[in-house]
Amino acid sequence: MALIVFLRGINVGGHRTFRPSMLARDLAAYDVVNVGAAGTLVVRKPVSRTKFLAELRRKLPFEAVVSFCDARDLIRLEMENPFEAEPFDQNVVRFVSILSKASRGKASLPIAFPPGENWFVRSIGSRKRLVFGVYRRHMRTIGYLGEIDGFFGAPATTRSWSTMLSVLRLLKDSEQANQRNDSGPSKKRSR
């Protein structure tokens, strides 16, 4: 099963910039695919997490918080359709935050940051290391996304649900390609 890796705080505001596509190329032995510019990597070759994360850290040009999840956790989240009850609003973004380590306790959700009607971030649920919710498009939102860290007791790396759907499409396409390859080439009968 694939491993999904998320780097926190890269290519933001001109700080800690690099090209994740080059990193993916440097990690080609692990069949790594880059998704976007924010440091989202899909590791398609089954490998020891410890070994891969050590290699990843050696290749990064700076220290970074690294979060990860198994593909099956993301697939399960999609099947549960966590945003089904959330009304569509163009000014609201659906997100998933990935905790860098397991949460220290069971959080009481939903929770809004700040509390009340004028929230900027609302966490509506969590599954293992995945926290999902919605945030309003506003300059102050980034500060409130940081509150997820304190609430769950671990650094969290956030991606939009649309980025997660791109990762899921990549996983499904890879799975279909593997199934085609596993069935092997068709054999013609000789006469």
Brief account:
With 191 residues, the protein is of the alpha+beta class.
Describe this entry's structure for a reader.
There is one protein chain. It is built from six helices and nine strands; from the N terminus they run E-H-E-E-H-E-H-E-E-E-E-H-H-E-H. It is of the alpha+beta class and 191 residues long. The termini are far apart. The C terminus is likely disordered. A hairpin with a 7-residue loop joins strand 6 and strand 7. Helix 3 crosses helix 6. The radius of gyration is 19 Å and the shape is globular. Strands 6-7-8-5-9 form a five-stranded antiparallel beta sheet. Strands 2-3-1-4 form a four-stranded antiparallel beta sheet.
List keywords for this structure.
single chain; 191 residues; alpha+beta; five-stranded antiparallel beta sheet; four-stranded antiparallel beta sheet; 6 helices; 32% helix; globular; disordered C terminus
Instruction: Please report the number of helical segments.
Output: 6
Shape: globular
Taken in chain order, the helices and strands follow as: EHEEHEHEEEEHHEH
Main sheet characteristics = 5 strands, antiparallel
- End-to-end distance: 42 Å
Share of residues in strands: 25-35%
- Poorly predicted tracts of residues: 187-191
Protein topology:
Blueprint: E1 3-7, H1 20-26, E2 32-35, E3 40-43, H2 49-59, E4 66-70, H3 71-80, E5 92-99, E6 111-113, E7 121-127, E8 130-136, H4 141-145, H5 147-152, E9 156-160, H6 161-183
Antiparallel strand pairs: 1-3, 1-4, 2-3, 5-8, 5-9, 6-7, 7-8
Helix pairs in contact: 3-6
